[in-house]
Amino acid sequence: MIPLIRHCIPLIIFSLAFRICYAQKEANTWYFGSYAGVDFNSGSPVALTNSGMYDFEGCASISDPATGSIMFYTNGNQVWNANHTVMANGSGLTGDQSSAQAAVIVPDPGNADQYYIFTAGEYYTNGNDGYRYSIVDISLNGGLGDVTATKNVLLYSPACEKLCAVKNAAGDGFWIMTHEWSGNNFVAFELTASGLSSGVTSSAGTSYSSYNPIGCMKFSSDGMRLATVLSGLNEAEVFDFDAATGVVSNSFTVGPIAQTFPYVYGISFSPNGSRLYVTEENDNHIYQYDLNAGTVAEINASKTAVGSSGSNAMQTIQLAPDGKLYIARNGAGFLAVINDPDSLGTLCNFEDDGFYPGGQMITYGLPGFVENIIIPDTTNSGGAAFAVSDTSVCQKFCIDFSDVSTNNPTSWSWTFEGGSPPLSSSQNPSACYNLPGTFDVTLIACNGIECDTVTLTDFITVIPTPPAPIITISNDTLFSSEGLTYQWQLNGEDIAGATSPFYVYSEPGSYTVFVTDENGCPNYASVVLTGIDNSLSGTEWNIYPNPSNGTFILSAYRSESAMVEIEITNAIGQRVYFLSEGNISNSFSKEISLRNVSRGIYFLTIRSARERLTRRIEVF
Fold first, then answer.
1. Burial code of 75-94, b = ≥16 C-beta within 10 A, e = fewer?
2. Mapped to the 3 state alphabet, what secondary structure does 135-174 carry?
């Protein structure tokens, strides 16, 4: 059988970790930078110019989960309400707008009117401001909210600039992740309806010193991984995270990242967690690492510079509700955008001037959020919701959709833009995609009383089928044009071990080569061979030693005289040796020197007027 392609999920497999998609809107409105803002409620970003906030680095926003309208936002020092005025008691928070992740806002699981603002101080105070929290009660001031008397409560000090949050495994609370100023201790605090727990300490990864407290830390959208930059080492680290216990473990390092010394600053996983993106300031690049590449060495080897930004430093990376990554460019008039962040390498579609925020200036920061509020996990509640087997597939492959709505629906109406079929009333349909592009998916789930709708814009990415390979024949060897992986078949069955760009055939039949490209997408070509003669009758040939260091002895005993051509080619059919020898008869011996060729596999072909013989030889 053809090997499973990583983007192409068979319809019979349901044991994968499905991506769950809800109509939640807490991250739909952003405020950041120099009075800049973005509204994602329409499905596409719209510039906002009504902000009351100037912010240099870290900031946070929170929107109404039902409407997506802004409730409040902060730069870690001050808190602005929906009317863009500073809340009562909303000044003097001890986060710092010069901290990479100055704040993150987390709903209180025990009180729907209350929100925690967790803050982090900046590097140049040696972390002495520490990690703290303040509480906003949105029911105060006529629904605009105020900061309560619970303000600047110390968690611990000294502390880094790194701060992020994710839902816990039970779905009834959140983990707030922090890191000590020096040493290698992560400290995770769990917030549930019972309140804020004492921290869970994990000793993992690099011991911090120098500039390592600077820069960002992010969870993956599924909450299973954590990544952090090491600005002082020009590296980043990736960890496993246990959302049930809060434990961080199993680190590995990617880097060096920047072309010139530090520093690296922003970091983010792609929505499905398969890619890691890191920004660096001096050369103004953003790099992608393929976390599915295999070993740590292979992950590091996958490093690709997917974008650069001229003279504007690349800084914070933030996943948005539209599934794209937005990148702050200090001093620029545009946000950079990665349009297809799950795609490999430059296919992620980086745009330097990706979004124009209405004339407002970009600085270092973008708002931070609870990571799986943006791309929620299965623990979130909502109405219409669905799971998918993948969001990125090869052309002419199919995707499974599964209803996981929580409004007890009895009927379903699906719309698959670009899909076949385009409509379905099944609870758990499949759709096949025959043309490349990006496509929306809509589910309307009805329970006989009311209906709820969820639409994901540009949610499905269909990658084009690569060109069909070209098969060429040289002597008894089939050669395929370039691909990433190969599998040869004879008469529709895989040939064991035939996974090279060439194959030496020995019998007639229909030969097919399946080739994949860098995205794992397949195409194939076939050739039919009818009649093969690999002998020179009346002659016994021998070549030895084989393998050799480049010197071979070709010997033969032939019962009759003949003119013979001796040719040696490399694995792609290029000639490296040729000799025309006349009147070979009786005993024949010839030394062949290949000492000037590269090590590898070569093919020796001997031809007479009517016959031929091919042997594989190896130079080590």
1. bbbbbbbbebebbebbeebb
2. EEECCCHHHCCEECCCCCEEEECCECCCCEEEECCCCCCE
Amino acid at 17: A
End-to-end CA distance of the chain: 33
Residue 378 has pLDDT above 60, yes or no: no
pLDDT, one tens digit per residue, over 519-537 is: 889 888 887 775 444 445 5
3-state secondary structure of 386: strand
Strand-strand pairing, 59-63 and 367-368 = parallel
Using CA atoms, how far residue 90 sits from 267, 370, 543, 582, in Å, is 29, 21, 87, 98
Q: How many CB atoms within 10 Å of residue 190?
A: 21
pLDDT band at 617 (very low <50, low <70, confident <90, very high): confident
Q: Is 121 helix (H, G, I), strand (E, B) or coil?
A: coil
Residues 6+ apart with CB under 8 A from 497: none
Length reported for the chain: 620
Domain assignment present for 216: yes
**Alpha helices, DSSP H only, in 184-287?**
none
Q: Are residues 394 and 524 in the same domain?
A: no
Residue 286 amino acid letter: I
Are 188 and 85 found together in one domain? Answer: yes
- What residues make up the domain containing 601? 539-619
